[in-house]
Amino acid sequence: MTIVLFGTVTKWWYVLPVDAPDTMMIGFPLAFISDGWHTSMSLQIFIVELLVDFLVYFSICFLLVFLVDNYFIKIRVPKLVTGLLWTFSTLIIVISIWIASFPEQIIQTRRDWEMKVMVTGFKLTWTHQDRPDFSNYDPNKK
To answer: What residues does each domain of the chain span?
Structure first.
């Protein structure tokens, strides 16, 4: 359940990095994937932020299942649901590893640049989030 939620429900971030172009990032509660700056189809993946995000998703799922199972109703998961969860989880892991293995991806331990968060929001992985229009934005005006 954790992997399915981690792979489908996330937060997008529109940020202005210091000395870099405006960037879309993905991750909840920390942004762990960013657009790559060296080519248009690349990504920057940050491992520490990814692990923290996964731990948060796991903790939330564990807490929900624990509370429901112990205090409300006993959870009896049919084999079909278990099979579907295993199938979706495996598919998400395989696709994620496949995308991360592209040679143009940059995988770093931590994000080493400062940024200013402009706009954020939540989305499902298969939906597209357009970049906000900040053509009239003045960074010196508060």
So the answer is: 2-114
